[in-house]
Amino acid sequence: MEENRNVWIWVALAVVMLLFFGGFGMGGYGMMGGMGFGFLFMILFWGVLIWLVIALVTAARSSKKGDDALTMLKRRYASGELSKKQYEEMKKGLR
Q1: Alpha carbon distance 95, 92 (integer Å)
Q2: Chain segment 69-79, per-residue pLDDT in tens
Q3: Nearest-angstrom CA–CA distance, 73 and 75
Q4: Are 39 and 22 in contact (CB under 8 A)?
């Protein structure tokens, strides 16, 4: 949960930086007269792209955790910590 909060803090900081620095240089509010709604769509596009990357990374991590738990269960069974019945019950619980 803490990682998720930190990610959103960084996303918010990036959006604020885009808003602050977006008005400087060519195409900013100076000579061109403003950016209109294009800037809002750019923020929406980057927000969706960042959200997609975060969702994919989170999904990849959660699938790895399942594999790690099964590996640990197999290790415990192989070392004799678990009986066959306990192993089968825990294995069903993981799937």
Answers
A1: 5
A2: 888 888 889 99
A3: 5
A4: yes
